Amino acid sequence: MTARLRTGPCVPALREAVKAWKAGGCKGITDTTRILLNHWFHTDHKLPRGLPFRYHSSQQEAIETLVFVWEFEKVRSRKALLERYALDLRNLHLPPYDDFARYCIKMATGSGKTKVMSLAVAWQFLNAVREQNEVSRDYAKTFLILAPNIIVFERLKIDFAGGRIFRADPVIPRELEIFWDFDCVMRGEAETAYADGTLFLTNIQQFYERPVRSEDDEPEAMTEVLGPAPPTKKLELADFGERIAMRAGKLLVINDEAHHAHEEENEWNKVIRGLHSKTSLTAQLDFSATPRFQKGAIFPWTIYDYPLKQAILDGIVKRPMKGIAKVAEAKSEHASIRYQPYLTAGVERWREYCEQLRPLERKPILFIMMSDTDAADDVEDWLKRKYPAEFGGEKTQVIHTDKSGEVSKKDLDKARVAVREVDQQDSPVNAIVSVLMLREGWDVQNVTVVVGLRPYTAKANILPEQTIGRGLRLMFRELPTSYIERVDIIGNKAFLDFVDDLEKLEELKLDTFELGKDKLHIVTIMPLGERKEFDIGVPLLTPSLVRKKSLAEEIENFDVTQLKPVVLPMSKDDPLAKTFRYEGYDIITLEKEVEREYTIPEPQTAQEVIGYYARRIAEAVKLPSQFAVLAPKVREFFERRAFGSSADLDDPVIVKAMATPVAHYVCVSVFKRALLTLIIEEQTPQLLEPARMLSTCQPFPWSRPVWEGRKCIFNLVACDTDFEREFAKFLDNAADVEAFAKLPQAFGFSIDYTDAAMNLKSYYPDFVALGEDGVHWLVETKGQETAEVARKDRAAVLWCENATNLTKASWRYVKVPQRFFEALQPSRLAELAALQVELFD
Q1: How far is CA 131 from CA 27, 280, 481, in A?
Q2: In the 3-class helix/strand/coil scheme, how is 104-163 assigned residue by residue?
Q3: Would you call 750 helix, strand, or coil by DSSP?
Q4: In this structure, are residues 72 and 135 in contact, taking their beta carbons and an 8 Å threshold?
Q5: Closest CA to 156 of 449, 485, 370, 440
Q6: What is the mean pLDDT of residues 89-114?
Q7: pLDDT digits over 562-606, tens only?
Q8: What Å distances lie between residue 78 and 15, 73, 138, CA to CA?
Q9: What is the H or E stretch that residue 451 is in?
Q10: Is the pTM of this model over 0.70?
Q11: Rounded to whole angstroms, how far apart are CA atoms 437 and 754?
């Protein structure tokens, strides 16, 4: 396997460039983009049940790389991309069509490409509607997402129909919701009232018709993977094509499973070029887990690569486990006889999952991959006859595919239902049987066992990753748990050869288990009914910290003369320029540091500069509606404070001095620092629920250390570290502790606090304990101290005071640093109370 196959030619250099760009503060981006990046990745988010939501680091890196290339570097063609970032151009051919930016984002199956798509849409649209015209005109207001087939379309529709993903995920910051006039139109739907932004979702077949393939045609191996040969008969570009052409502004095209668009001359790419001729494309984004040409090379315009190996190590997808079976194939033409030992092993393993997942109320799916439809039908019949209770009737579903790998028309409706409903607890389906080519669009989470069977004479018509792709997506992805999910791969040698190829390709060694010997065991944390005496109730309070929606009154009363900025020089010849210092920078260094980030159009009047700065300050404090009340204060700042004495803002020299990058930086920085202290309001919390009992916590799986506690409502104490396990043991053995529990994030209890930038964050305490004196304790165990920890401490102390006042039950907070605990070697909770006094006095 050559290095060329491992990643795209631009990826290594881009990875380092983006890293350096981030280290320098992500300069050269719009204020809108900065607000979005901060909101997505540096603000804590909660789901409705109180569970934390975070974008994965891979999703963050993907969108940051896109922003870097398009917005900062302004690369608008594949030629420019390759010339700037490709490590070696000798074996690369420049594309024949290069009229607009085209980038590929390679992300492993199950790693969340759809979420990155939603972020890319929001980034483009919000910049298009709220930046100045000379900037906004380059961004798209219209979006087209293309799927390669109806199954992928159905999967995408779940997220984008009605704009669901933009509401369910924290895509739109609250301060930018006023700009979100956006509609999502699915294939076959009519537009409602005109929206400023519109996303169209369809499958590419809306724009062309596939040719009919002869039954005798035997496709090339890689063609089976990358899709059928490009069609030659084109349909009228009705509906979406015409509606897109009627809209103002630019278009962003997003291709899902974009390996189908690997040939420049295929109809898919011709359709996109045709759209560009009517509506200028701002970019084409190709998303795929396997963006390869027929000979295996990765698309050279790939800008980000998140390989399967890394996704497995990061726990973003299930960890594949190879089942080792010491059995021999029978000599028979019937698949159910020839492969019966493997099929039986798959069923037995599926039964183990059923038993282990029952407390978690999850239903495992057995996925069997065959080489042809006759074999699939034979296996279906065998399953139904041999295991009627588990796989009889509609409990086994066969999905036939044609030679191109597409679901056959007669099974299409059945396949659509399976995609939508198979993971649901009330779905009757326990097993899905299909051929090897069923390779994409199946966003099924509950597949736990994959049985792959193929004869030695079959052609190698799948990529290695696709041998296990249907089982990679996480079953518990909505739960904040450390559980390492797995998918068990069982198959004959001819099939497992593909898995071996995957290991070579990804430089990954998969773990193995011996069928029939290594039994499955999933550690499940759950409350026990027989331990009600150890149940603890945690009060539910309204937040004590809220972000104000308006600072109008505070700004009007704001005394600008109390600001203490460094005096700005009026020109480069001003003697003050030689002695100027701000945040450790002299004027020359600061100019270089901020010139790309802080630039404004050439101003004609002071009012233009004031208006521009007022908008930027309002955005910096996440209150864009406060622009009008800020403008008079900015004027007063320049008239009375910025230059050390009164200044005439009608003087062209002063106007020029106001518009320098340094003046821009200092003005925004000074106001932001002053206003951020006012933006978070403390309010008296109200009691929503006196005691939310730990016994209401839903069961969840766990893979980290546990303690078999006696005084805990849970069957096991779920610990994140060995120190937490030692502390759980201490609480369990302490004579003055009546009950305790590790507070699992799945319980959803958190305390709001603010970080140094005044962002609202959520803190999840470690333990809760009830002392023999009736005092409730929140306990935080810490290995090391940071500035952030001190902020959490203050928030926890305040929460305990409020909980005590509202419930009349005593609540206290103690932080237990590991070094103190190990030195103190306490045996009673009361000894930690003394530590509490020492820490906070």
Answers
A1: 16, 19, 40
A2: EEEECCCCCHHHHHHHHHHHHHHHHHHCCHHHHCCCEEEEEEEECCHHHHHHHHHHHHHH
A3: coil
A4: no
A5: 440
A6: 88
A7: 777 677 877 766 666 655 555 555 555 555 555 555 555 566 788
A8: 17, 13, 18
A9: strand 447-452
A10: yes
A11: 51
